[in-house]
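Q: For a teaching session next week I want to show students how multiple molecules come together into a single three-dimensional assembly. I've collected the sequence lines for a complex. Could you give me the predicted structure tokens for the whole thing so I can convert them for display?
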Amino acid sequence: MKTYILIGITTLKEYMAYRLNFFLWRLRMFLGMLVTFFLWFSVFEKQSHFGIYSKNILLSYILYSNLISTLTLSSRVAEIAGQLNDGSIINLLLKPVSLFSYYFSRDMADKLINVGFAIFEVSIVVFSFKAPLIPPQNVFLFLPFLFCGIFISFHINLILSFIGFWTTEVWAPRFLFFTLVFFLSGSYFPLDILPKSIYTILMFTPFPSIFFIPTKILIGQINTISLWQICTTVFWAIFLSRCSVVMWKQGNKSFSFWGR
Amino acid sequence: MIKVANLTKIYKTHIKDQNPFKDVFMRKYKDVIALDKISFEIGENESVGFIGPNGAGKTTTLKIISGILYPTSGFVSVNGFTPFDKNPRFLKQIAFVMGQRNQLIWDLPATDTFELQKEIYEIPEHEYKKNVGELTEILDCKNLTSKPVKTLSLGERMKMELIAGLLHRPKIVFFDEPTIGLDIFSQETIRTFIREFQEEFKSTVILTSHYLEDVKKLSKRLIIINKGRIIYDGTLKKIIEQYSLTKRVTITLEKPANDTELRAIDIPIRYMFPKVVYKIRKSVLPEKIKAITQNLPFSDLTVEDETIEDIIKTFFRKNNE
Amino acid sequence: MIKFLQKNLRLFFLYSRFTLKTTLQARVGIVFFLAGKLFRFLFLLVFILLLFGKTKIISGYSLNQAVIFYLTFNVVDSLTQILFREVYRFRPLVVSGSFDMVLLKPMHPFTKILFGGIDYMDILFVIPYLFLVVLFFFKTIAFPYSIFNILSSLLIYILFLFNSLILASAFHIVVLALGIITTEVDHTIMIYRDLSGLGRFPMEIYKEPIRSLFTFIIPVGVMMSFPSKALFGLLSGQFMWYTFGISLSSFVFSLVFWNYALKRYQSWGG
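A: Of course. Below is the structure for the complete assembly, covering every listed component.
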């Protein structure tokens, strides 16, 4: 256990060494949030409701989903693809730590520091532009779904990186996938403003579980959560984790560990 | 040809502050003197070797003379041009070959890069074909030029780099660690090539290397830089004469000799039967040789200069005192 | 001067030819990449349509106008990507030390590091984007059409697009200069991408001081929003002059900054 805490601390220290880089990364994330926030803010200039959403709830959704997506999507797992490409993965394989645990610790540190800054950024928006933010609700129901979101996102990331066992062109599938994730998980808008048929289909995919559902719980709209939804979330969590483990094992067998 | 006077280069590096705020907004800098008022001249068709420890300023000097870096102060002139101005006519006369750095387009065959060079250096078609032919002939790699660069081995890639770099028949060529990281066969190939190239095309060759073997085989003149200053500028021969006070004497024994017998001559620096190696001062060499021939049962005896490495080490030691 | 331009133009075509060869080698990657770009474009378009499904006007603009703002952003973004894709590869070039090899050549470094790797994939997108702009433009103007008005609006639009390109090239040159001055920033170009991303929607949606910041100080708004505004005839003459002034002065500034950066260049290794 101590090892993994140390791995986390080392990851944090890396950020300190590249302070300016990290600061600019957060600036980029902040700008992204500003666009969505202001867009919705101006929608509510002339009206108080958008479909089933009131101004307060929708803007709260945007701000909270930003925080929670930072928590679930931030990851260092993408490094693995690069390490497979240049052969440096060997260093990790020879260590007495499992790759999964190693990267989970690393990711936790990554998520922690990113969410810390994200909270600060959201506060700036709330205080400077008087954004209505409803207080968090249903926290105990929220936590397990948050963990599922983190878990699912972690394994999706691993699967995308493990593609590196079989091809050097990892970047393009990752780009495509994250474009999908970004839109279909509800970054720009809450998914339920989509037409009902599309929304229903989407709920079968793992995307809404990543941060849409946890956010909805946090802003008090637990009517989204049906038994069916819980089953879907759990199914994807198990299925994706099995996939990544299988890919890892297969990859190790067939990989030739080239590199320079 | 190349004239350098009082050349100074100072790098500003910033000292990392523990306080992140101060580190970004209130930076402290420190000056690192890379070159300290160095001066030298190199004439046409000379071959010069720059040697010195890491960080001495060798590569900095080359990069200033070729126009990559901007001098802090001092005078640099190459064939009448100021290098940093990067006048195209100046750039067409020089070439810079760096070991381990490449300019070949990775995914495509070397011929594509050659074609690019032809356009950049405005080499006429017939001359281009002739130069490619000659260079691939010397390096014996005609069949490699149409394979994608990424499929070639390091040694083969180095050959392609050399051709690409020298296609335009430059008058001055800078070689920065050209044999680094190569196996000994490739090193030998590169050395032979550089020597043949210089003999054939009569260019000025300026070389930096950590392998003194490169310098020994390729340069008549030696410039030693240490901590930004030139501490020696002269021929290789002279430094051997001045700083080489001993000779290596290697004896092959017919039968084992005991310690006392061996030590009577001198303390051997290595003894692994049947070979014994002594380091004997030149002044006493004749009498020691006589003693060896009289007292030791040997079948073979060779006398050699110290290795260049040893000579340079002696030189540095003497200069740091 | 003519010879200089002729030579560098010839080199530009040569580099472009080689870039095409290299691009075509990564066939699977191309498919994924094109799909990703298409999805991103469509999703945001759908998002705008959804927004306007329940709202008539946002910040004073109708659906069709908002779509044109979005399309214009994509046109400018694609055009700059087509031309300046090589800037994304600049940082690794510097860090590996290979940038020195570029400096040593008797050609302008920009021929390689700015224009040397055009993005063919974006060419596929630019043409439909422009076509859609014209389509939606016709939806915004009232019948009966005045040929003169239409042509003059479109002409001004194209003029502003060209202006945006000049501004964009100034941005990219500054990114290049920063790439050789500072060792600490890996992805200055991505910051540019995210800043320009603010221009997907009309600048009016942003509150002060953000709106002024991105119109006057970091002229992203000028680059992305102004062509559309000019198309709708919403830009006063004063603003037009301001626009050209700012892009020209930005361009000059970027060149001065680049030359300064070259003097500060410390090179790598050795």
